[in-house]
Design brief:
The structure is a single chain. The protein is an all-alpha fold. It has one domain: Farnesyl Diphosphate Synthase (Orthogonal Bundle), CATH 1.10.600.10. Helix content is 72%, strand content 1%. The chain contains 16 helices and 2 strands. A two-stranded antiparallel sheet has the order 1-2. Helix 4 runs parallel beside helix 7 and helix 4 runs antiparallel to helix 8.
């Protein structure tokens, strides 16, 4: 059994973990990434940059492109433009998946703004998502590395598989923890892993370093999603940019639900079946769901699982010598988990 280690690292314990150290190290590169994104999403079809710009402008932490930039810098890249272009490619893939996700989930709000499908409709959102995927592949081809093409194209395929796999578990309260982990590995963690690995490829580093960064990204991505699962039930609308309990209202089966269902008695399981499988929800049901999760420790234990994967992510960085970026990547793990507090 793995032992979960302290995630504090070398950070000043009086300061909350933050993205600021990583941003200070890759901020200039990230500005160039944003310039590439704006330039490459241009199209003579006016609706394309308009719709794509809507979701890009919605913000987000740009964590995935930052992983590519940070990994490349930690591995010694300084003057190349490749890591900048490929970081933009990673963000195109991510943005395309968000457009498709919102259509599949019938979402009306993302990061506090109306989703593209709510404004322009499902057809336009799906097609612009396809456009962004195509732009991403253009950037990969222009880069000229078969390794890059293999890593990012495989990630794109796995993400799509994860979307389909999620459909098979949708509203199914019998979903197991292992089945749910397979979904989030595919949907979320795979792109984190690919983004980090590409940084080592650009730097022409040995396979062991590529694989270490892939492991870091994969386990960071799992931890990040698990914390997101908790935040949906234990945060505020202001912090989330969406309504608290959206996962519950949509009948999504996330790990806090899986654990609460397994630990509950039959009347409690009937509650979950009614509200999540049947989507027969009444006033007070969300509050009751949160009460059950709290009573059975499923929110707490989901955070503990996130800590476990975060520890694996930090351990994966162990083969790299001390470096400001390495320390910032360690703090990124802490930041991802601290969001649950």
């Amino acid at each position: 059994m793995a032992i979960v280690v302290n995630l504090e690292g070398g950070r000043d314990r009086g300061r909350a973990p933050s993205l600021a150290p990583l941003m200070s190290l890759v901020g200039d590169d990230l500005k160039r990434v944003n310039e590439v994104i704006l330039r490459r999403m241009h199209s003579p079809v006016a609706l394309i940059p308009q719709l794509a710009g809507h979701i890009v402008a919605a913000g987000g932490k740009r964590m995935r492109p930052m992983l590519t930039l940070a990994a490349a810098r930690m591995c010694g890249v300084t003057a190349s433009e490749r890591h900048v272009n490929l970081a933009a490619c990673v963000e195109f893939i991510h943005t395309a998946t968000l457009l498709h996700d919102d259509v599949v989930d019938e979402s009306d709000l993302r990061r506090g703004r109306a989703t593209a499908n709510a404004v322009w409709g499902n057809k336009a959102s799906v097609l612009v998502g396809d456009f962004l995927f195509s732009r991403a592949f253009e950037v990969m081809v222009e880069d000229g590395s078969l390794d890059v093409l293999r890593i990012l194209s495989h990630a794109s395929a796995v993400i799509a598989e994860g979307e389909v796999l999620q459909l098979t578990t949708a509203n199914d309260t019998e979903t197991t923890e292992s089945a749910y982990l397979e979904v989030i590995k595919a949907k979320t963690a795979t792109l984190f892993a690919a983004a980090a690995r590409v940084g080592a490829v650009v730097a022409n580093r040995p396979k062991i370093e590529e694989e270490a960064l892939e492991s870091y990204g994969l386990n960071l991505g799992i931890a990040f999603q698990l914390v997101d699962d908790v935040i949906d039930y234990a945060s505020t609308a202001e912090k989330m940019g969406k309504s608290v309990g959206d996962d519950f209202r949509d009948g999504k089966i996330t790990l806090p639900v899986v654990l609460a269902f397994l630990r509950g008695d039959e009347p409690e399981r009937q509650f979950w079946r009614r509200t999540l499988e049947g989507l027969d929800q009444k006033p007070g049901d969300l509050e009751h769901a949160i009460d059950l999760m709290t009573r059975h420790g499923s929110l707490r234990d989901t955070v503990e699982r996130a800590r476990h994967y975060g520890a694996i992510a930090r351990d994966a960085l162990g083969i790299f010598p001390d470096h400001p970026v390495k320390r910032a990547l360690g703090e990124l793990v802490e930041f991802a988990i601290h969001r649950a507090h």
